[in-house]
Amino acid sequence: AQSVTQLDSHVSVSEGTPVLLRCNYSSSYSPSLFWYVQHPNKGLQLLLKYTSAATLVKGINGFEAEFKKSETSFHLTKPSAHMSDAAEYFCVVSGTGGYNKLIFGAGTRLAVHP
Amino acid sequence: GAVVSQHPSRVICKSGTSVKIECRSLDFQATTMFWYRQFPKQSLMLMATSNEGSKATYEQGVEKDKFLINHASLTLSTLTVTSAHPEDSSFYICSARVPGRTGELFFGEGSRLTVL
Question: Where residue B42 falls among pLDDT bands split at 50, 70, 90?
Answer without folding.
Answer: confident
